[in-house]
Amino acid sequence: MIIAVDGPTASGKGTIAKALAAHFGLAYLDTGLLYRAVGRQVQLSGGDPDNPVHALAACDFPDELLEDEALRSEEVGGLASRVSIHPDVRAALFERQRAFAQQPGGALLDGRDIGTIIAPDADVKLFITASVQARAQRRWMEMQGREIDIPLTEIEQDVVARDDRDINRKDAPLRAAADALVIDTTSLGKEQAIQAAIDAVKSALS
Ligand code: DC
Predict the structure, then answer these.
(1) How would you label 132-149 residue by residue, b for 16+ Cβ within 10 Å and e otherwise?
(2) Distance, CA 196 to ligand 1 centroid (Å)?
(3) Does residue 52 surpass a pLDDT of 90?
(4) What pLDDT shows up at residue 74?
(5) Residue range 108-156, pLDDT digits in tens
(6) Of 25, 23, 31, 22, which Cα lies nearest the Cα of 4?
(7) Percent of the chain's residues with pLDDT above 90
(8) Spatial separation of the C-alpha atoms in residues 124 and 49, rounded to whole Å
(9) Does residue 111 line the site of ligand 1, with CB under 6 A?
(10) Which of 130, 133, 135, 179 fits 186 for a cystine, CB–CB 3.0-4.6 Å?
């Protein structure tokens, strides 16, 4: 079984995806981490994330980079969004994601284009979304917890900029697959959102 979970930044898709993978006993891949590793590798090598040649060269990042704590930062998230625009980068990361999706025990992948490009054949497709304000607020709370003090308005601007780049890029833009079940988590707490996703998967499978 393949489950595809897509959605914009800070929609709660990562939390939901991890919980679903554990619940249904599936291997889990956070595909955003691959793009973050490419963005981080460009940064480490002093390249320009907007340059397609530099970004493609960074797709050869060493696997240990996936463990780098810096990958979780807002800055690297922004770099990931920039390198993800280049079609050559998307093509270079395609096989790895496709192979993961097709492993014998089944898999759950989360990202932006799982239901549309990586696994259009997924058994269940979820699209997790929430208002810009709710997503910015969650990210702000999470950062406060990590003692990173950034004004909420700055985070809101970052969320809007990231949405704009992810939705409007030409290659594999962020959008819900026609057959995806949309879950809006704006007014849901974490446990409610997870339960809504489990229920949606069960109903899609029955
Ligand atoms: O999910 P995330 O915030 O870790 O993703 C970081 C960026 O990577 C996101 O802004 C766009 C890109 N990305 C993508 O283009 N396709 C994916 N399947 C996953 C992430």
Answers:
(1) bebbbbbbbeebeeeeee
(2) 23
(3) yes
(4) 86
(5) 999 999 999 999 999 999 999 999 999 999 999 988 998 889 999 999 9
(6) 31
(7) 96
(8) 33
(9) yes
(10) 130
* Cβ neighbours, 10 Å, residue 175: 15
Provide the CB-side half-sphere exposure for 200 (13 A, CA).
24
Q: What is the pLDDT of residues 7-47, one digit of tens each?
A: 999 999 999 999 999 999 999 999 999 999 999 999 999 99
- In which region does residue 119 sit, left (phi positive, over 0), alpha (psi from -120 to 50) or beta (all else)? beta
Span 164-173, average pLDDT: 92
What's the whole-model pTM score?
0.95
Query: d(Cα 158, Cα 124) in Å, to the nearest integer?
Result: 30
Q: Can you say whether the dihedral through the CA atoms of 141, 68, 50, 171 is positive or negative?
A: negative
Confidence of residue 73 (pLDDT cuts 50, 70, 90): confident
Nearest Cα to Cα of residue 156 among 7, 5, 9: 9
Q: Can you read off the two tokens belonging to residue 132?
A: 């810009």
Q: Are 169 and 84 in contact (CB under 8 A)?
A: yes
Q: From the CB of 6, is ligand 1 less than 6 Å away? A: no
Token pair of 39 as six digits: 């963005």
Site to probe by mutation for ligand 1, drawn from 84, 96, 97, 164 as the one with most ligand atoms within 8 Å of Cβ, is 84
Q: Nearest to residue 88, comparing CAs of 115, 58, 118?
A: 58
